[in-house]
Design brief:
- With 350 residues, this protein is α/β, with parallel strands linked by helices.
- It has two domains: 166 residues, Quinone Oxidoreductase, Chain A, domain 1, CATH 3.90.180.10; 139 residues, 3-Layer(aba) Sandwich (Rossmann fold), CATH 3.40.50.
- Helices cover 29% and strands 25% of the residues.
- The strands form four sheets. Strands 3, 4, 5, 6, 7, 16 and 17 form a seven-stranded mixed beta sheet that branches.
- The longest helix is centred in the middle third of the chain and has 14 residues.
- This is Alcohol dehydrogenase.
Length: 350
């Protein structure tokens, strides 16, 4: 099959590699149709990492089932599916209570199987393949991973109707967080440094948008919330922005409020000074959120597909660019240069 393999320097090369097989009776083989580029992928773009050399990566994907094992009953050849790529070892205490998103072996396992989006085929256990309703396109389904991350963070936040919410970062994650919060009856302010992203946020229902490079964000939040601060702040920028955005989040939130950390950190220790006395004296909760899994008895990715199908999440507005897999390096350049290109979700057609 055709696949985009990581080079040592963090770029990609197109190669022909062995197609995955059905390793067990409950496995499914699917033909990937669309994959996406997320913030984690971008943080590894053009970064030398020998551990990823010659590997297939990517974890936002949808496709069509082509083969199933004898013990597969939830999908059949020809079915359109979204492939969930959060996959633990299945035997640890966390996996046993459907908290596989914090499984100690999460990355070891997922990268062996389902977290291999930039290739023609992917194989994995059948419970990671969710059948798509007819009205959900492959492109929209490829955004389910992003929206599931957002939904997990919202579940942890306890967000309620009429809450005052600030979202930091108007990329795919931040815009997804905005859509979910608005669908739940919250008032939402969103911040970013890219005007095109803020324009899109307004079209998705943001009550207020702030460009933090130009505007007095602290004064704006206080004015918008009657001097109290936000009930909940979602940090959705992550990466190299975190040393700036996490302190911002703790200054935007009210006493007794919550900061939900959605944006990702890189491996290793990260030192970020915070006003710890205010955080403690105000009983501000800092809530880390990692990927997604289940909420009560429901798979969060399955919930997202239902929300997209019902029209409650207009994710099609997030799709700004499309590239063939042969042009994956150009796709990544476009996604990274979002201030110039206006990129939000870049779809790779495979």
């Amino acid at each position: 099959m055709k696949a985009a393999l990581k080079n040592r320097d963090g770029t990609f090369q197109i190669a022909n590699v062995e197609r995955p097989i059905l390793r067990d009776s409950n496995f499914v083989l699917a033909r990937v149709r669309v994959a996406g580029i997320c913030g984690t992928d971008l943080r590894h773009w053009k970064v030398e990492d020998p551990s990823l050399e010659c590997h297939i990566v990517g974890h936002e994907l949808a496709g069509e089932v082509v083969e199933v094992g004898p013990d597969v009953f939830n999908v059949a050849p020809g079915d359109r599916v979204v492939i969930e790529t959060v996959m633990g070892d299945g035997v640890c205490p966390y996996c046993n209570v459907q908290r596989y998103n914090i499984c100690e072996h999460l990355y070891d396992v997922r990268t062996q199987f389902v977290s291999r989006a930039y290739a023609e085929y992917v194989a994995g256990p059948s419970h990671k393949f969710h059948k798509l309703p007819d009205q959900v396109s492959f492109e929209e389904a490829a955004l389910a991973d992003t929206l599931s991350v957002c939904l997990h963070g919202q579940h942890l936040s306890g967000l309620g109707i009429n809450d005052k919410v600030v979202v930091i970062g108007a990329g795919c994650i931040g815009l997804g967080q905005l859509m979910l919060a608005r669908a739940s009856g919250a008032d939402v302010m969103i911040t970013d440094i890219v005007d095109s992203a803020l324009d899109l946020a307004r079209s998705l229902g943001a009550d207020r948008t702030i460009n933090t490079h130009r505007d007095d964000w602290q004064a704006a939040v206080l004015e918008w919330t009657g001097g109290r601060g936000a009930d909940i702040v979602f940090e959705c920028a992550g990466g190299t922005a975190m040393p700036m955005t996490l302190p911002q989040a703790t200054k935007m939130v009210r006493r007794g409020g919550k900061v939900v950390i959605i944006g990702g950190f890189d491996a290793g220790e990260t030192t970020i000074p915070l006003e710890w006395q205010r955080i403690q004296m105000s009983e501000i909760q800092l809530i880390p959120s990692a990927s997604f899994a289940y909420h009560d008895i429901y798979a969060e990715q399955g919930q997202v597909i239902e929300l997209i199908a019902s029209g409650k999440l207009p994710v099609g507005k997030l799709i700004t660019h499309r590239f063939a897999i042969d042009d994956i390096n150009q796709a990544f350049e476009t996604a990274r240069a979002k201030e110039k290109t206006g990129a939000v979700f870049v779809a790779i057609e495979i």
